[in-house]
Amino acid sequence: MELIKVKDYDAMSEEACAFLVERINRLENPVLGLATGSTPEGLYKRIIEKYNQNEVSFKNVKSFNLDEYVGLEKDNPNSYYYFMKDKLFDHVDISLNNVRVPNGAAADLKAECEAHEAAIKAAGGVDVQLLGIGANGHIGFNEPGTPFTSTTQVVDLEQSTIEANSRFFDSIEEVPTQAISMGIETIMNSNEILLLVSGENKADALAKLMNGEVTEELPASVLQNHAKVTVIADEAALSVV
Ligand code: GLP
Q1: Domain range spanning residue 114?
Q2: Which of 115, 162, 183, 204 could be cross-linked to 151 through a Cys-Cys bond (beta carbons 3.0 to 4.6 Å apart)?
Q3: Is 207 part of a structural domain of the chain?
C-alpha cells in the first residue's frame, strides 16, 4: 500500500483529483468504480473544474457505483444515483448510458445485484476503484463480518452506519436499513484502488487498516492483500497511526 500524507481535506481532494485525472487521460477506455459520501465530494468538485478547463473528458469513461440504499428511487435526493448526478454526472461529458449505480428500488434485488456484477465483467472489470471508509472500517456498505468472498449483494446496515448517515436525512427513521453493495471480492478484482481518508473519526479505522491484521472484522483490512492500493489520508485521519 502506498500512503500519501496530506494536510487536510482540501489537500486530499486536490491530490485525489490529480490521481484520477491522470488515469482517465492515460487509459483508452477508463472504467471507474465510484463512491459516494462526504469524502469524495471535494474530489468531484475539483474534477468538474478540470473538465471546465478542458483538462479531462469523460467521453470514453464508464463508471460503476459501489452501493445504493434499498428502497430509494433514483429521483430521491438521498439516493446515491441522485448524489452522483448532482455532484458529478450532470457537470461533465459522461453519458448516462455509461454509468451504472445499483438500482435500490428494483423489484428483484437479487437479480439487480447479479446484473451489476455482470455489467462490471462485461466492461472488462474496473480499472480504478475509488473508496472511502466507514468509521467501523466498512468499504462500500460491506459491514464488519462480511466475507471476503462476497460479490454484489443486499446487505443489512449496522446501527452505527445508520446513525452516521442520518445526517443526510430529515430523521433517523428515514434512513434505509439495507443497501445493495459491491462485495469485497468485487472491489478486490479492480486493477487499482484509491482510498481517501479524512478526519479524526476515521483515525482508528485507518490505524487498524495500516497496522492491524487482515480480518473480516475490519473489511478495509482486505486492502492489504491488493497489489495496487494508494491511500491518501489527511493529518487528522493519521492522528493515531
Ligand atoms: C458510507 C458509504 C461508503 C462511504 C462511507 C464513508 O456509508 N456507503 O461508500 O465510503 O460510508 O462515508 P463518508 O465519506 O460520508 O464519511
Answers
A1: 2-128+141-199+222-229
A2: 183
A3: no
Which of 168, 187, 155, 226 lies closest to 64 in space, CA to CA? 187
CA of 23 to the centre of ligand 1 (A): 23
Which candidate, 155, 164, 171, places its Cα nearest to that of 109?
155
Q: The C-alpha cell of 168 is what? A: 443526510
Assign residue 172 the CATH number of its domain: 3.40.50.1360
136 is catalytic: yes
Closest CA to 190 of 156, 225, 147, 215: 225
In a domain, 135, yes or no: no
Count structural domains, the chain.
1
Q: Look at residue 134 and tell me if it is in a domain.
A: no
In a domain, 185, yes or no: yes
Question: What is the mean pLDDT, run by run of 10 residues, along the chain of 241 residues?
Answer: 98 98 98 98 98 98 98 97 98 98 98 98 98 97 97 97 95 97 98 98 97 97 98 97 80
Measured by CA distance, the residue closest to atom 4 of ligand 1 is 132
Q: What share of the chain is helix, strand, coil (3-state, %, to 5)?
A: 40, 20, 40
User: What residue owns the CA closest to ligand 1's atom 9?
Assistant: 140
User: Distance from the CA of 36 to the center of ligand 1, in angstroms?
Assistant: 6
ipTM of the complex: 0.95
Q: Could you tell me where the DSSP H helices lie in 27-108?
A: 41-52, 80-87
